[in-house]
Amino acid sequence: MLEPYRSGLELIEEIDTTLAMTPTLWWLGHAGFVIRFATMTFYVDPCLSDLAHRVRVARAPLSGAEIRHADLILCTQASPDHMDATALPGLLDASRRARVVLPKSAAAAGQARGIPLHRMTTTDADLRVEYFKMGQYGRVYSIPSAAPNLDWSAEGGYPYLGYLIRFGHWTIYHAGHTVRYEGMADRLRPYNVNIALLPISGSTLRVNEAAQLAADIGAQWLVPMHYGTFSDEDPNAESRFVQHMLGHRPEQGFKVFQVGEKWTVPE
After folding, report:
1. What angle, rounded to 10 degrees, do the helices at 207-217 and 237-248 form?
2. Which of 56, 105, 201, 207 could be 227's S-S partner, Cβ–Cβ 3.0 to 4.6 Å?
């Protein structure tokens, strides 16, 4: 197993000192990302505890208690690998002003896992969450994800969401855990996605499906995720992804992360 590319206080310092004109991302493993723009720092699906045997890296690059700079924490669904009950209470204690954005149907599960109601912002498909900080403006739109079904209910809305995180003219799509469903690309296309973070392992998109979805929505960059972290994920997903992209999608920009690695989106 590999050690993270960067971790702990060294990683925190790198995040804190990064100021770029375009979004910067770090992969935390599985579906977890740090997304920073100007001084805004968003965490998406931070899975930082050992929920199962880690097969790609020896440990998570951060613990929840080390994260003191989070502005928003976005959870795409209530499953433990997307809403980490071990990490979130410490993260919220350390990042005193952070709020957790989550599907409205996940509010009870979030409360049971240590997220106080007053720290939650619930959302659903086609709603928008806004965040302002030091003259900067971030927006988070939601669309349904299917894991493997959309499972909509009038009371709870959609239990699985994807988030479209927009800073200026940049839009990052984090799909969460999803398969492709009818009309998905049509929902995404109006957001002019620049960077698509798409799952490629387990009961999610196949590699070719992720590549096709990125092409169908016009994403400039495709980033694979949701693979190679836990024992129930395909250990060969990354190599199959790279081979497919080089062999079949040479025109599509893509980025493959190491856990704890920084990537600033090219202008």
Report:
1. 50
2. 201
Query: Is the sign of the CA dihedral 104, 74, 2, 227 positive or negative?
Result: positive
| 23, 109, 130, 187, 251 from 30: Cα distances, Å | 20, 21, 26, 25, 26
Locate the domains of the chain by residue range: 8-264
CA atoms within 13 A on the CB side of 15: 29
> pTM for the complete prediction?
0.97
pLDDT digits (tens, 9 = 90+) for 40-70: 999 999 999 875 556 667 789 999 999 999 9
CA–CA distance from 111 to each of 12, 191, 200 (Å)? 27, 31, 30
- CATH number for the domain running over 8-264: 3.60.15.10
Residue 173: exposure state from Cβ atoms within 10 A (0-12, 13-18, ≥19): buried
Task: With CA atoms as reference, report the closest residue to 75 among 57, 54, 48, 37.
Answer: 48
| 224 beta partners | 198
Give the dihedral sign, CA 198/201/206/208: positive
d(CA 143, CA 146): 10
| pLDDT tens-digit map of 237-259 | 999 999 999 999 999 999 999 99
Q: For residue 65, what are its two tokens?
A: 């208690």
